[in-house]
User: Fold this.
Amino acid sequence: MEKSHRRTPVTFDPVTFVESHDWTFAKTMPHIPHEYVVRGKNGCAEGGWDAFAAHIARHGYKARWTSPSGRHIDNVYLELRDWRFWVISPVINRERIENSTTERLDLGTTAADRSGPNPSRSEEATAEEAVAEARITMRESEEFIASVPWRNVKMIPVGHGLTEEEAIKRWGEYHHITPDPHEYVIKEWREVDTEQFDAFVKLIKADGYRGKYVAPYRPDYVMTNHYLEIDDWCYWFIYPKMLNRERAEHRKHEPIPN
Assistant:
């Protein structure tokens, strides 16, 4: 069966799309005011979302946004009337142009949306490009982080199943050790958006750094993983569905030099 974005209309009116949808204010990020619609949710049809994403990709321009933490994020933006739009699949965001802090990169293109349809390229092709190229940015990551119910790991001693001989062989002495304190989120929890979860995991692997960690309950085994630091927290993923974090100042892993 074909995907919905393969059936986008040849002509598309972005103004009608914008005015016919209810845009949700990102209340978890009042310090970065913006609104959004989610593909396939709250009355936002997948076909219309794909068509607008394609329109942004075709008629927008590249710009750079700087997060409060100083991280630079590049994306394609479209100006339409008093708003600036950008795609973070499966979300299309908008913010008031007057409140925007993005810095335009490709000054040779037209900022405002005055170009109209481009008959040389199909909506199908550009919609696929928009969805494929769009990746969760730091702004959306911060929103995702604030929206999920982080829980403290239970500090239950590990090693009760070992015999005294096994424990001495592993640790050099017989004792029970608790895990390092941290917080976690499970992908299958009801409150977690699975698409945003997966996108954040990809961001950790793409923009994070490699590190090695030795658990206190298993000092003979070195684990390696990708880590990403955002706003004083350090994040990492444990396959298949566990996202973890700890305060960066308390991190227990050691970065692996490139």
Remarks:
- The mean pLDDT is 78.
- The radius of gyration is 23 Å.
